[in-house]
Design goal:
The protein has 52 residues and is mostly helical. It is built from three helices and two strands, in the order βαβαα. The chain has one domain. It is elongated.
Length: 52
């Protein structure tokens, strides 16, 4: 997980209509790498996560 730099934030806001509110945020958002997103999905799908 890492913070998007200002230029990449602008690009994401421009290309994705769902993130239009992000345009007005003063804080830079966090993003996951593809590998990090897969790891998080595997953890959340584990039996331990489902029982908690």
């Amino acid at each position: 997980m890492f913070r998007l730099p200002p230029g990449e934030k602008q690009e994401v806001v421009t290309k994705c209509d769902r993130l239009a509110k992000l345009k007005f945020s003063k804080v830079l958002p966090f993003a996951f790498t593809e590998y990090g997103a897969i790891q998080a999905a595997n953890v959340l799908a584990s039996p331990q996560a489902m029982t908690a």
